[in-house]
Fold:
Amino acid sequence: MLASFFLSFFSMPRDVKPRFVVLYGSQKGQAQSIAEGIAEEAEEHGLVADLCCLNQNEKYNLEKESALVVFVVSTTGDGEPPDNALQFVKRIKKRTLFPDHYKHLLYALLALGDTNYANFCNCGKTIERRLQELGAKQFYPTGYADDGVGLELVIDPWLEGLWSAIKDALSKMASNRTAQLNENMDDPSKEVPDSSLLNIQLNLLSIADKQKCEPDSQYASPLAVSDVRPASSTGSIGLAFQSTSTVSVSAPKIQACSEGVPHVSLAASLTSSLPPLSESSLNVPTLPPPYLAVTFQETDAMEQAVEPLNKETLYQVPISKAVQLSKGDSVKTAILLELDISAFPSMTYQPGDSFDVFCPNRAEEVEQLLHRLGLQDRKYHRVQILLRDDTKKKGAQVPPHIPQNISLLFLLTWCLEIRSVPKKAFLRALVEHTSDSAQRRRLQELCSKQGAADYNLFVRDPCLSVSELLAAFPSCSPPLRLLIELLPKLQPRPYSAASSRLRHPEKLHFVFNMVEFPSCSGRPAGRRGLCTGWLFDLVNPGLVFPEKAECSSSLALPKIHVNLRPNCSFRHPSDPSVPFIMIGPGTGVAPFIGFLQQREEERKENPEAKFGETWLFFGCRYRDRDYLFRSRILDRFTKSGLQMDVAHLHLLGF
Structure:
């Protein structure tokens, strides 16, 4: 019986593809896109990937997983897990789990975050910490990708080392299995393992920028940052691997003018490059497989896209006041909005909570994109989106954030983030729809490994939008399908509450800075931020300026759609006697205004209670221009006998 087992084992076909599992948690689609890319690329390496979202409990079972597991997770809000990873995080944080609950698990993890926000990569760190507490072992260093400086700075080298690390881990697992089988041959009394365990599963790997944690030495592959050329596996179990993960593009032939001198650009720009990049062979990403079929249905109705489709689940609240906090000559324009929530008794909030504002894409930008796509005559047509029968994309589905039976105008106004910075996968897909050879080459450069610096300089850093990119490459004519497949969902914009219900029981305050994007290569004229520009245009007719006490216009201010986002982790101490320190420069001071209001009202309600010292550190560029909440902080709190110490940090650069 034992001999027959070995005979069947070693006679396995050498092209059997090992499986691996990719688990992701994603709020805006970035982590999901990376996970999907890895699952698709697995085919090129002779592997088969099972792709699952962390909330798809019926599709995976970590308690019984006998192979490698890969996590790709983002962080949202104030260090919170994405919505589709929240239940998973709660589940693994249960203190009833034993320390060896995941001792059988081999994992790798890629965490996405942004150092511009607190609790960088907190979801990934939470998952990793808990996995290790439960006995799981790491086989590849964790990657902490920072959107504040460019996710690709970590993700790209991490992906390069991914496949060699997988193969190393598989080889070591195979060696351990072979050694175990040899022991079983020497001792027939030992149980022969089920051959199904040889159907190995793998995880995604991640590279840490400055990661201190060392992977488990038995399974870990060295951190690979340089160009990786995975060698073929020589393991005895006959694992079949391929080594192609990118497409090589040859350098273009240099055309010479009549004098024999080649044409060379004087300076690099969005649309042109300089040597050595312009003369280099390129490694470009694999073309994302198409998976959607889009058709149009004519209709007599001319639907206006004025409100979000999910308005029933949102609060439509009127803006009762708009005040400009900064003076006209300040570097930034800061606006305080007061929302009237008296008609919504269920809309309760605490200092430290935030809420989402749902804003549309700008009408003129939607019209520009319709014209660029050649679809301006179909903007009122209904869009029908179906999965292609011949798609090779794993886990393909119609994007859930796009409802059926909506107009093209509504799709581009409320569903797709047309202001999003085009990712390299999007640039790669645009190559196939660009007729001019020079423009095709430049798009290839921008999405290639060799053109990473140009991509950052001309696309990512200036926050170039899809429309701006298409305007720079006029011979590119992408289909609508491509935008639906590769552009993320239009996300609501979160803002912190800057008031306390104890002080303002029927009001909700928040503050925002007007975001400005300057002109650049690819953007002839500057533009405002999407939501801040939209809000400013809404309230500008009735805006109250610092020099004026009341609104200069009798126009009624509009309503906006919002949704509360409670944050149980961002609270002042429940025990008022505990001292606490708040640090919030610029508009970062806004949520602490609510904290101070809450503390002052609590003091009034409990005059005999003991209150600890409260320190607030805040700052601005110029004391006489953008000293936000000056009257509210200095003239009220510091003179109210609340034992509050207010420190103004002037021109300290934080």
In short: The mean pLDDT is 80.
